[in-house]
Amino acid sequence: MKDTELKQIQEFRTELYNCFESRADVSQEIVDVLAQSTQVELSVALSKEPVFR
């Protein structure tokens, strides 16, 4: 991944994080899990995903 692409991703994540009015950390983690998960049928199943803390 190029430095410019990485910077764009970091900027996007920062802007997204700033959009959350409350519980930004948890909201960002949920976005991360949804972005990385390939098969999630229920929102409860997110907690079983390896990337979920």
Q: Could you give the distance between the termini?
A: 25 Å
Count of discrete domains? 1
Note the main sheet.
Answer: none
Portion of residues within helices: 55-70%
Structural class: mainly alpha
Unreliable stretches covering 5 or more consecutive residues? none
What is the residue-averaged pLDDT? 81
User: Strand share of the residues?
Assistant: under 5%
Question: In oligomeric terms, what are we looking at?
Answer: single chain
SSE order = HH
Sequence-ordered SSE layout with sheet pairings:
Elements: H1 3-19, H2 24-36
What does this structure look like?
With 53 residues, the protein is mostly helical. Helix content is 57%, strand content 0%. The chain is built from two helices and no strands. Helix 1 packs across helix 2. The model has no long low-confidence stretch (mean pLDDT 81).
Which properties best describe this structure?
mainly alpha, 53 residues, 2 helices
Task: Briefly characterize the structure.
The protein has about 55 residues and is mostly helical. Helices cover about 55% and strands about 0% of the residues.
